Amino acid sequence: MDSDDIDSSPVDFEDQAPIEIRRFEDKARIEEPDSNDRVPPTKRIVPKFIISDNQSEVFCVRFSPENNYIAAGCGDGSIKVYNTGTGRLAYQLSSGSSDMPTTCLRWRPQTSTSKTKNVLISVNADGMVQHWHITSGKCLHTINDPENQLYAIDYRGDGAFFATAGKDKVIRVYDEATKSLAATLTGGGSATPGHSNRVFSLKFNPADSNVIVTGGWDNTIQIWDIRMQHAVRSIYGPHICGDSVDIQNDVVLSGSWRPEEQLQLWDYRSGDLIETIKWRHGIGSSTEPCLLYAAQFSKGSADMIVAGGSGSNEAKIFDRSRGNRPFGTIAGMTRACYTVDFSADNKMVSVAGGDGTIRILEIQQLEGKKK
User: How far apart are CA 55 and CA 356, in angstroms?
Assistant: First the structure.
C-alpha cells in the first residue's frame, strides 16, 4: 500500500460564507509598457481577481498542475487553497495555530506513481515538512527538524524525490514513497565550499534529475550533484533572500535583494553572466528601486519571466522574445511582493506578499501578434 493512501470524506469550503473577492479595486495598479517602445509588446496582463481574506502575509503561492487551484502559504502558518475559476476558498489545510510561517509549497507532480492525487507538500519556519491531501484536508505525513528553519522545497520532475533547504545550509533529499532521507548534501569539493549562510531557494534541474540548484544569503548560487553528495560548482554574485532562483534550458535565473543588477541570467555550465535584465524601461518608470524576493521562468518554455520584491513594492512580467522587455507591471502594492508563480499552462500569473492579498492575472496574446 502507498504510504499516502487514505480513506476519508472530502472537506469543501466553497459552499460556506463567501470571502472578499474583488477585481483589483485596491491601491495596486496594472501598468503597461511605454507606448514609445520601439519593440511593441505581443502579450498583455489582464486582472482576473484578487483574494484579500488573509489576515497575515503570504509567503508562497503555487498553482496546481491542472491550474484549477492555487495554494497559499501564510505568515500565521496556515495553508489555504483557492479555486482559480471563482477565487473562493476551496480547502484549508491547517488551522494557522503555529506561530511560524509556512514558507514554501509545492504540488506533487502528476507524473508521480502514487495513486493518491491532489497532494501538496509544505515547509515551515519551525522545521516541519508536511504532506497534505487537499480534498480531505488531512496531513498525510510530517518530518520534524525542530533545530532548523526551512525556507525552500522542490520536487524532482517525476515526483519520486523532494529536497529541502534552510537555516542550517544543508540540502536534504527524501524518497517520496517512503518519506525517508535519501541523501544529505553539504559542503563542496575543490571547486566550491557549498553554502556558508541560509538557503532560501532550491530547484531541481529539469534536464538532469541528479542536479539541484540553490541560492541564499552568502551571495552564491550552488550547483549540487546528488551522486557526489556535495556542491560541484558555484555562481558568485546573486544575493538570494526568497524563492528567486530558477533553471531552464541550461540558463539559471537569479533575483537578488539589492537595488541594482537584481535580475540576471547565467550560463548553467560555465557560471558566466549572460545578461543583467533592465528593471526600468521608459521615461515614466518609477525611480525607486525594487529589491527582489521572487523570480521565476514560465513553465516549460521559459519564454517569460516574472519577478517581484520590496522597495517599490511591485512585480513585473518580462517577454524573453522581446529582448526581456516587460509587458506588464503590478505596481503600487502597499507592502512587498514575496512570491510569484506561473500556472502550468502559462495563461495565468499570480503575485502576493506582505499585504496578504493574492492577485491573479491572465496572460493574453495580443490580437494579430505572433508568439
Answer: 6
Tell me if residue 189 falls in helix, strand or coil: coil
Over the stretch 218-274, which tens digit does the pLDDT of each residue have?
Answer: 999 999 999 999 999 999 999 999 999 999 999 999 999 999 999 999 999 999 999
Q: For residue 321, give the 3-state DSSP assignment.
A: helix
Report how far residue 14's alpha carbon sits from residue 87's, in angstroms, rounded to the nearest whole number. 10
The closest of 63, 82, 50 to 333, measured between CA atoms, is: 50
Give the angle 177-182-188 at the CA atoms, nearest 5°. Answer: 150
Of 295, 305, 189, the closest CA to residue 242 belongs to 295
Cα 326 to the center of its chain, rounded Å: 19
* Single-letter amino acid code for the residue at 237: G
CA distance 314 to 241: 16
For residue 357, give the amino acid letter: T
pTM for this entry:
0.91
For 86, the enclosing helix (H) or strand (E) is: none
